[in-house]
Amino acid sequence: MKRLLTSVAAVAVATVAAGGLVVGSAGSAAATGGAPPWEPDSGSVGSLTFYDAAGTPVTGGSINDAPIAAYVQGSTQIRSGDTKATLLGYTPVSGQVPGQWSGEALSSSTVYPNTNAPAPLNSSSLPLVTGSGGDESLATYIADFPNTDTSTTDGYAGLYQLRLKTSVAGQSPTTSYDSVDIQVTGSSWSVVYPAPVATPTTTTLGTSPTSPQEAGTPCSSRTARRTSERRRRSVPARRR
């Protein structure tokens, strides 16, 4: 399922719209947690979030997986009235703006909202790509559009951009898109831009028996036992 995609925008228009050509070392920027030199991308209107089959967000995986993720959701409603979403891969090229890069579709065009997706994806109006076993893996994409230049004049090795575009019957796919930049290292990929935000977690500790209790009631909490043991060890034995 390969569909070669090339930019339909004129080079002069793309260059003027982006304010010039993109130059610099993206590899070093990603390695230090900074933004690749083409960011912010003028064609991108939002970011992407990847989910596993249970609806849990993920920020990376294996390049051999097909699909890349069970679900990929855009952060913005790109065009009102659209009902299908497609995930695409693009390879950065030094001296070109993102609108000039070449790439291909990684998924089929899937209908959204998808009521069979896990909550809250099943009721969201945001564009959603639903992955399938027939999707193209990143490994296959990289074989078609490799990015291996490690020179100081390019340095984009291992960096790729994933884009989500939407469409509806009777209209061409959108020219703008939601996107992320990923770094491929060995057989793994991870999101580098926008930088993933850690999800806070909470832990609830309990005691047995539950509170409140009368003074003197034993507590089986490990913390309480350890504290009591430390106190006993810290009290010197009385001389007889």
Please tell me what the overall shape is. globular
Number of helices: 4
SSE order: EHHEEEEEEEEEHEEEH
What gap, in angstroms, lies between the N and C termini?
Answer: 88 Å
Number of strands: 13
**Which residues sit in consecutive blocks of at least 5 with pLDDT less than 50?**
1-32, 221-225
Instruction: Report on the biggest sheet.
Output: 9 strands, mixed
Domains (count) = 1
Q: Calculate the mean pLDDT score and round it.
A: 81
Percentage of helical residues? 10-25%
Structural class by sheet pairing and helices: alpha+beta
Rg? 25 Å
* Percent of sequence in beta strands: 15-25%
Structural commentary:
Helix content is 14%, strand content 24%. The longest helix is centred in the last third of the chain and has 13 residues. The relative contact order is 0.19. The N terminus is likely disordered.
Secondary structure blueprint with pairings:
Layout: E1 4-5, H1 11-17, H2 26-31, E2 44-46, E3 48-51, E4 57-58, E5 60-62, E6 71-74, E7 84-90, E8 103-105, E9 110-111, E10 128-130, H3 138-144, E11 159-167, E12 177-185, E13 188-193, H4 222-234
Parallel strand pairs: 2-12
Antiparallel strand pairs: 1-8, 3-4, 3-6, 5-13, 6-10, 7-8, 7-9, 7-11, 11-12, 12-13
Key terms:
13 strands; 9-stranded mixed sheet; 240 residues; 4-stranded antiparallel sheet; disordered N terminus; alpha+beta; 14% helix
Brief overview:
With 240 residues, the protein is α+β, with helices and mostly antiparallel strands. It is 14% helix and 24% strand.
